[in-house]
Amino acid sequence: MGLFILRRSGVMLLTALCLTFIVFFLTNLYPNLEKLAKTQGNFRMSDEAVASWLDANGYGGPMVSKYGQWLGVLPGWTRETEEGFTGRCITGTVTAEEAANASTFCGILQGDWGYSTRFKDEVSVIVSERLGNTGFLMLCVLLIMVPSALLIGVLAGMREGSATDRSLSTASILTTATPEYVSGVIFIAVFTSSTVGLKWFKGTATSAMDNPTFENFFLPVLTIALYGMGYIARMTRASMTEVMTAQYIRTARLKGVSFHNIVIKHALRNALIAPFTVIMLQFPWLLNGVVIVETLFNYKGFGWVLVEAAGNNDIELLLAVSVVSVVVVLVTQLISDIGYVYLNPRIRIS
């Protein structure tokens, strides 16, 4: 197991480097840099002025060297101006002596994630704060989505073809087929609108960031949970149906074991192997798939920051969001593989 984790960690590191370089390359294309320069400077800047601004702020030079500086494996850039010295590892304008004593490496490996041009704050502070908001939202969604989906899937798969199976399967398909932006709009119109709605939920998701309550937080949680619940329930139902027709289940029935014990002691563990993988894959989806819901309900979490960074060409913030997303996807896949081995003893790692 240790060798397996070590190999997977090496593959994860290589994958993360490749993915982050692709994102870095796309965000640092000249049209994006030109837009950034004109946004921070003047929209009427000439091409020469744009090139001068980009060079003065460290956006010039080869792409590989800029990526190495951003990553923190190459020395940061330094420029001499009329006021003094500036650089990637220098805050503001300093003297030559202060510039010589400044740090040489200052990338994401050293904890320097850059400065947000949209929020005028450190990227690390913004990402940690918004990621905390989305983390709490994800926790509430999982507490509702996973137990409900597993229960629906098990009940439907226990007796294939019954009325309960058909009803629960149909409901699961409907929830999965309804996108979040459709169900979210419907919930807002029905439960919060002051004109035609029932006005059951009077709070807003924005206020839930400081004081989450049932009124201001339940609708975004329900919107996300319903969409993911149907998929997990269908996978659980398919796995449960397959397990219930296995030979060892038939043998247990012939021995007179009660149906309840057959489901709990024999079928359930094997039936949860496939749904476990699906549940672990929900973490990347929850982290990035909440973009629509957070924007719709104006909940300022990780997805909302992604929209703001992309809409305002905030390159440093967009890169930080991409790094976090890549890490979450790779780590959840590793946990999924390890959990799959423990759930299925027939799998052996050579």
How would you characterize this protein structure?
This protein has 2 domains: 11-112, no CATH class; 124-343, MetI-like (MetI-like fold). Helix content is 68%, strand content 4%. It has 15 helices and 5 strands. The strands form 2 sheets. It has a 3-stranded antiparallel beta sheet with strand order 1-2-3. The N and C termini lie close together (9 Å). The model has no long low-confidence stretch (mean pLDDT 84).
Write the element-wise H/E pattern from the N-terminal end onward: HHHHEEEHEEHHHHHHHHHH
- Please give the radius of gyration in angstroms: 26 Å
Tell me the domain tally. 2
How many helices? 15
Count every beta strand, where a strand is a DSSP E run of 2 or more residues: 5
Span between N and C termini? 9 Å
Class inferred from helices and paired strands: mainly alpha
Q: Strand order, biggest sheet?
A: 1-2-3
* Residue runs with pLDDT of under 50 for 5 or more positions: none
CATH superfamily descriptor of the largest domain: MetI-like
Main sheet, how many strands, which sense, barrel? Answer: 3 strands, antiparallel
Tell me roughly what share of residues is in helical segments.
55-70%
Shape: elongated
Beta content comes to under 5%
CATH class of the largest domain: Mainly Alpha
CATH topology of the largest domain: MetI-like fold
* CATH-defined architecture of the largest domain: Orthogonal Bundle
Query: What is the averaged pLDDT score?
Result: 84
